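Bumping my old thread because nobody answered last time. Still need a sequence for this structure:
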């Protein structure tokens, strides 16, 4: 059965720092310039821990240095630990696509029990090969979860339960990020509320939405520690900090991740190559307009230097694919292409600029997977192709930390 428990969170001290200056985007979307900017906002910005500085003097381990800073911030009361094990209700409020309203995603941050069997914690997407050494080295040195993975709960009522808590209490932390997304955090330490949340979340399996590699890294670290420890009791390293959100359209915004093609022959006729699997019709010049019309046209989108096209799958292609996903259908079509390089990017304008600036030969826009497709895939114990879903917005690092040394 799924395990999801409260923990004694480590939080920034609002008397000493402004939360807006110390939280950061997820480590895997932060480049060198972004990191420098975040460090300039505050000497206590969490990116110094989450993404250690690799440019230190020879002989200085960046992960040990990050761990020392993490410890020193606690000694200076920049970071303070809660006295009681708690759950943390986390809400992100952001502008809707039409910019005329707001949406929100609300869930619970807790300690998720690691599941080697993959029966209670389900991956929803195949993962790309990616070095795990960086996250593992940080985990070994800091002995802390510095950012939560994102999991989806199949239990109905989690969103309503979170709403009841947030309606009756004021947040203990709040900050607005550079994208005008409001991040708020509430503490739940009441034993009755903790039990209610725990019972609800542990009643069904959980689906990993974002953080597959960190989950696998935590399993690796657990194996290391288990080999060296003789105790049979569950330890802090048997759990991983996770943000659990109800799997419902009211709580989730799922965007597509598009494709860029390079290293094809210079005289490659992509229109002719796609005609065996798609009906091609001219699309609008604007990549944004092309993307907006994909759902109504039941099509993918093609961006080339000479023009844009709708790609409506043939019935034969639909029959080959059992998932109903554009990512799977495109993978089938690309099997007929010459050797090429495929990369991933979100945002139609990013695809358009890459093709226009000769950083890619062609771009293909996909429709986003639906919430029901994510649930169906998880229930069938299958996985979507890599880079199918892009959940928006991304939880901020620094809202709460979890120590493995309780």
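Sorry it took so long. Here it is:
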């Amino acid at each position: 059965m799924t395990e999801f428990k409260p923990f004694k969170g480590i939080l920034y001290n609002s008397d000493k720092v402004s939360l807006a200056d110390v939280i950061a985007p997820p480590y895997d979307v932060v480049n060198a310039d972004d990191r420098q900017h975040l460090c300039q906002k505050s000497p206590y910005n969490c990116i110094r821990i989450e993404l250690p500085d690799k440019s230190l003097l020879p002989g200085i381990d960046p992960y040990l240095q990050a761990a020392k800073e993490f410890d020193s911030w606690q000694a200076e009361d920049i970071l303070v630990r809660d006295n009681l094990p708690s759950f943390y209700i986390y809400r992100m409020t952001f502008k809707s696509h039409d910019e005329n309203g707001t949406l929100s995603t609300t869930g619970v941050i807790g300690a998720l029990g690691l599941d080697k069997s993959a029966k209670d914690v389900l991956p929803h997407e195949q993962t790309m090969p990616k070095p795990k050494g960086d996250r593992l080295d940080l985990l070994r040195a800091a002995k802390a979860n510095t950012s939560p993975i994102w999991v989806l709960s199949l239990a109905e009522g989690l969103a309503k339960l979170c709403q009841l808590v947030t309606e009756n209490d004021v947040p203990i932390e709040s900050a607005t990020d550079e994208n005008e997304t409001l991040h708020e955090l509430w503490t739940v330490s009441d034993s009755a509320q903790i039990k209610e949340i725990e019972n609800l979340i542990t009643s069904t399996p959980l689906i990993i939405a974002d953080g597959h590699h960190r989950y696998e890294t935590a399993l690796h670290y657990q194996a290391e520690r288990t080999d060296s420890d003789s105790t049979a009791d569950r330890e802090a390293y048997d759990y991983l900090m996770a943000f659990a959100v109800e799997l419902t359209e009211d709580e989730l915004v799922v965007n597509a991740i598009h494709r860029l093609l390079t290293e094809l022959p210079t005289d490659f006729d992509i229109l002719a190559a796609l005609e065996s699997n798609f009906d091609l019709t001219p699309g609008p010049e604007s990549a944004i307009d092309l993307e907006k019309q994909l759902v109504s046209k039941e099509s993918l989108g093609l961006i080339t230097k000479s023009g844009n096209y709708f790609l409506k799958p043939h019935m034969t292609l639909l029959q080959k694919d059992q998932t109903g996903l554009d990512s799977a259908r495109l993978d089938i079509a690309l099997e007929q292409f010459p050797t090429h390089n495929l990369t991933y990017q979100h945002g139609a304008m990013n695809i358009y600029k890459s093709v226009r600036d000769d950083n890619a030969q062609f771009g293909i826009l996909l429709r986003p997977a639906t919430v029901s497709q994510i649930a169906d895939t998880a229930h069938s114990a299958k996985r979507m192709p890599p880079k199918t879903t892009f959940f928006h917005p991304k939880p901020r690092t620094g809202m709460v930390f979890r120590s493995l040394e309780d």
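The chain has a mean pLDDT of 92. Let me know if any region looks off to you.
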